[in-house]
Write a structure and sequence with these properties.
486 residues, eleven-stranded mixed β-sheet, 16 helices, binds magnesium ion, EC 6.3.2.13, binds ligand UAG, binds 2,6-diaminopimelic acid, 24 strands, six-stranded mixed β-sheet, binds adenosine-5'-triphosphate, alpha/beta, cell cycle
């Protein structure tokens, strides 16, 4: 593509060299530069892309976009100085791939919890309604029936535009994507036109990256601040920061809630492990999904689909056919009548939510056994918190390993145990091997008891010392529950 075309709508501070170069690719990593490409130098969290300008030129880059011009300028290279190279990358990527986000309905979901659930539910609803679409999520990327392994919840802006362009080429009208706070902060959504933006909730998370809750909140809000007047923003006003998201947006504002009046109002009428009877805006329907948080997720998916122009009756009919999302309150039952819940809850807040949801459903005679751990090389503060919550809210908590990474599993477990209050000392035990821990839970369980296996959800590995060993909670349950022939 000609440089002139590529630079449309992009503010340039200074340009040195051939203004009409032909660009073969846009890259922001010197390691994957190809001849005649354009290299964008970005300041990262570890290194500064400006120090890889010369290696990029050696590999054939013909155009350099940077915030600071190098002192030693090479012949036959075009240097372009911009104010913000990371944001510029977003605009370039849209231009290079033909602005695909403007050619379909791009729907983004942000929030601390529920993004994968809502985005996947939407993909499934639209499939039932007769539309193939694109899904960009933590678990996987789906282009119609093709599944591509996911590297990031919100991948880089080139990857996003490539997938969007493919979707446009295939004639798809919709794309559902998760918008993570890292993604917003690192401008991975820059230049994209979101038709509808949904907000799930915000709780303490990722403070290792964002430092303070205020910064984290501000980052999420930026997603809504940057919408245009043709977009629609839909927010959860049961969350105390739900309205904050809409404060400065130009988008049309819509709300949803269970506890208060809203444009989209939901109610849970009945619930058990087989599903829930719900009422959305006066209309009742049955879903096979369980868990209170899924009422919120379904309600947001419903609101988005209504705002996309579909009939309420058709949507509810489609929603009653939905299957659970992989690793999100996924239920299984053993022949012996034990219920298993496999869930990705890996934060104190999520663990508390899922335990509350289960406790709301189970009767006094049904015991709750929780198998969980905490990831290594991650936030240490959550460990005692999760120990406290799990032992308080379960009949028995079995503390085990969840991706120890480079840490000693025993040390992580000790940090979790440190949060257990003395009156609950008899309500927990520790088994470092996750398979053995699940085995122990099954041994302990009686018919009708519930075993919650939390923290890994869809993950199919246990990461130890940089090596990912195959491990899948669901697979393990199916294998062990059968072995026990309960
Ligand atoms: C902390 C973080 O988010 N890092 C992301 C960031 O990398 P970085 O800032 O560390 O990059 P860097 O190494 O400092 O390099 C700076 C620049 O120099 C370039 N470079 C670097 C080396 C070189 O030899 N040549 C070169 O050109 C790099 O390509 C980059 O453009 O930019 C990269 C390119 O987009 C990302 O792949 C990378 O994600 C890392 C792998 C990651 O683990 N990110 C996680 C935390 C993340 O983003 N998670 C969220 C979801 C979180 C959640 O909700 O659970 C997600 O959306 O997935
Ligand atoms: N609406 C919700 N409110 C509170 N908790 C939720 C909600 N939806 C899901 N959860 C809990 O959070 C866990 C993660 O859900 P999900 O994967 O949908 O969220 P996410 O926002 O995509 O998370 P991540 O940032 O890790 O990708 C679930 O397994 C469940 O325990
Ligand atoms: N995106 C999160 C997921 C955590 C999942 C849990 N299984 C763990 O490994 O801690 C992280 O990488 O911190
Ligand atoms: Mg996700």
């Amino acid at each position: 593509m000609k440089l002139e075309e590529l630079l449309k709508r992009i503010p340039v501070l200074e340009m040195i060299g051939n203004q009409n170069a032909d660009v073969s690719e846009i890259v922001f990593d010197s390691r994957i530069v190809v001849p005649d490409s354009l290299y964008v130098a970005i300041k990262g969290t570890v290194s500064d892309g400006h120090s890889f300008i010369d290696p990029s030129i050696e590999k054939g880059a013909k155009v350099i976009i940077c915030e600071v011009l190098p002192e030693d300028l090479k012949d036959n290279v075009t240097y372009i100085k911009v104010k913000d190279a990371s944001k510029t990358l977003g605009q370039l990527a849209s231009n290079f791939y033909g602005n695909p986000s403007e050619k379909l309905n791009l729907i983004g979901v942000t929030g601390t919890n529920g993004k994968t659930s809502v985005a996947t539910l939407l993909f499934d609803i639209f499939k039932i309604l007769g539309f193939q679409s694109l899904l960009i999520s933590t678990v996987e990327y789906r282009i119609g029936d093709e599944i591509i392994p996911s590297t990031h919840t919100t991948p880089d802006v080139i990857r996003i535009n490539q997938m969007l362009a493919k979707a446009v080429e295939l004639g798809y009208e919709y794309t559902f994507m998760e918008v993570s706070s890292h993604g917003i902060h690192q401008n991975r959504t820059e230049g994209l036109h979101f038709k509808i933006a949904g907000f799930t909730n915000i709780t303490h998370d990722h403070l290792d990256y964002h430092k303070t809750f205020e910064e984290y909140l501000k980052t999420k809000k930026r997603f809504f601040d940057e919408l245009n007047s043709e977009s629609i923003a839909i927010t959860n006003i049961d969350d105390k920061n739900g309205n904050v998201m809409l404060q400065n947006t130009k988008a049309k504002k819509k709300t949803y809630a269970l506890k208060t009046m809203a444009d989209f109002h939901g109610k849970m009428l009945e619930t058990d492990f087989n599903g829930m009877l719900l009422n959305f805006n006066g209309k009742e329907f049955w879903t096979t999904l369980s868990g209170k948080f899924n009422v919120y997720n379904l309600l947001l998916a419903y609101a988005i689909t209504v705002e996309a122009g579909f009939h309420e009756e058709d949507i509810l009919k489609a929603m009653s056919q939905l299957k659970t999302v992989k690793g999100r309150f996924e239920t299984l039952k053993s022949e012996g009548g034990i219920f298993f819940v496999i869930d990705y809850a890996h934060t104190p807040d999520a663990l508390e939510n899922i335990l509350d949801s289960i406790n709301e459903i189970r009767t006094k005679n049904e015991r709750l056994i929780t198998v969980f751990g905490c990831g290594g090389d991650r936030d240490h503060a959550k460990r005692p918190e999760m120990g406290k919550i799990a032992s308080r809210k379960s009949t028995l908590a079995i503390i085990t390993s969840d991706n120890p990474r480079t840490e000693n599993p025993a040390t992580i477990i000790q940090e979790i145990e440190a949060g257990v209050e003395p009156q609950y000392f008899s309500k927990y035990t520790s088994i470092p091997d996750r398979r053995e821990a699940i085995k122990m839970a099954i041994k302990f369980a009686e018919p009708k008891d519930i075993i919650l296996i939390a923290g890994k959800g869809h993950e199919n590995y246990q990461e130890i010392d940089g090596i990912k060993h195959h491990f899948d909670d669901k697979e393990t349950v199916i294998e062990l529950a059968k072995l026990m022939s309960k």
